[in-house]
Structure formats: structure tokens, C-alpha cells
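Because showing beats explaining, we let one protein speak, sequence and C-alpha cells together, and leave readers to judge.
___
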Amino acid sequence: MPDVARTLDLPPDQRFDYWKHVLSDTFVPLEVSSPGGEADFRGRLRGCELGSLRLIEVQAEPHTARRTARLVKAAPAGCYKIGVQLRGTSLLIQDGREALLTPGDFAVYDTDRPYSLALYLLFGPAIFSTLAERAAIHFEYVVERQPELCPGCARE
């Protein structure tokens, strides 16, 4: 997959601001924070599009991306995401439900409802994103089960 964005091409003091901008442009508007601070942040997105499906692999230092109610209201996206944990660990929280993802797990979530996704190690998930109307997912099913964790379903 070709690189979509990488922070190492920038001076260390500009990397985290760039990362926040890139995540919001690539996915949906997000609030992004880093527990390790913003200095010398390392992150890389690689991806491609397959018809209406967008595949993005996230490789980054620990950080948290939040989709707040304010951001949802200001910029509804109308899409679902499927996060497949390739390496490391991440925690997805939506509607009071939590899914701790380890390699091989995946979770489905709705970008038009607030969520938080925390990546804990340098490597993270592959994120599949598609418009809700094209996903052919029954809305009531998604509302009842989000974020839905499928432990080990993506393991070989």
C-alpha cells in the first residue's frame, strides 16, 4: 500500500499537529491527543481505495482519537468503520461499550455517533471505511451491537 501520510518527513515540532490534521482529513473530523506529548511524534498512514471501500493502515505512537458529539453534529459522515487490529493493542469505546482489540480482533463502529479510539503501541489497526448506505448493514443491528468485537476473527 502506498503511504498516505508520514510524520518523519517533517521537523519534530510539527509532527503531531500534522498528524491531527491528517487523521481528520483521512477519516472524519477528530480530536487527537497523545499521552507521551506532542514532541517528535511518529506516525504513518498507508492506504488505498477499493471502489467505495477505503483501507487505511495506521502505524503510530500511542494516541487517542475522539469523535465528539460536537464534531458529529458539525460534520456527519454517514459511514461505518471496521477496525482490524494488526499489531499492538487499541481500545474502542462507543455508546458506553468497550472493545479491547489485540492482533486478529476487529470491531465495527458508526462515525455518526461519538466514539474514542486509543492506540497503545507503535503499531495499530487497519481501518476499513465505507458509506453507511453502501454497507448494506441493517441500522438497528449496528445500534444494538456497537462497538462489536469479534475476538480473533481476523487471525490466520
Summary: The radius of gyration is 15 Å. Residues 3-150 form a domain with the Jelly Rolls fold (CATH 2.60.120.10). The chain has a mean pLDDT of 83.
